[in-house]
Design a protein that fits this description.
single chain; 200 residues; alpha+beta; OB fold (Dihydrolipoamide Acetyltransferase, E2P); DNA polymerase, domain 1; Helicase, Ruva Protein, domain 3; 3 domains
């Protein structure tokens, strides 16, 4: 099992990224909570990882902090929640915000995330409630250093990231139109769009 990677950020296209570790390129998928803290392409970065083995592929997921990885692993144990939904949950909220939702039992907040219906939201709350104390006490781990760099095509990259997270094109167009402004980075554009979606 690959537990962590340290190398050079070769490419980033949310939710995917390519990490060059000693000449070997590792393709990873990461939640937007991790993307927000990634450095510019070409800069060094360290990520915690989790590998999901499927019949048709081995998929490596990267996280800026141990808390994020711990939450991701906890979500995978919930019946009906796969990597895509777990990634969407982490992309739509911080670990702290998610724990508050669980403690408050706010299923409606979770149903705003693509792929999560009422029954799945209630199951997540019930099954994750026992893990709240453990997740709250988790060590923060090592953050991916540096500020995110501006993307040359923020709109198109943000659109692709939101499609990958399960949002429908018409809704994405509406969210991005409301969130866009001159010179905005891909990460900030996605962050604003996700916040708007959560309030809808």
């Amino acid at each position: 099992m690959i537990g962590s990677l340290r190398g050079r950020l070769a490419a980033k296209n949310p939710p995917g990224l390519l990490l060059d570790v000693g000449g070997v390129g590792y393709e990873l998928e990461a939640p937007m909570s991790t993307f927000y803290g990634l450095p510019a392409t070409g800069e060094p970065v360290a990520l915690f990882t989790h590998m999901v083995v499927r019949e048709d592929a081995h998929v490596l997921f990267g996280f800026a902090t141990e808390s994020e990885r711990r939450l991701f692993r906890g979500l995978l144990k919930v019946s009906g929640v796969g990597p895509k939904i777990a990634l969407a949950i982490l992309s739509g909220s911080s670990v702290e915000d998610f724990l508050r939702v669980i403690e408050a039992g706010e299923a409606a907040m979770l149903t705003r995330i693509p792929g999560i219906g009422r029954k799945t939201a209630e199951r997540v709350i019930i099954e994750m409630r026992d893990n709240v104390a453990k997740l709250s006490a988790a060590a923060p781990g090592t953050d991916a250093a540096a500020m995110p760099g501006a993307a040359p095509s923020a709109q198109s990259e943000a659109f692709g990231a939101l499609v990958a997270l399960g949002y429908k094109p018409p809704e994405i167009a509406r969210l991005l139109k409301a969130a866009d402004e001159p010179g905005i980075s891909t990460e900030d554009l996605i962050r604003r769009a996700l916040r708007s979606a959560a309030k809808a």
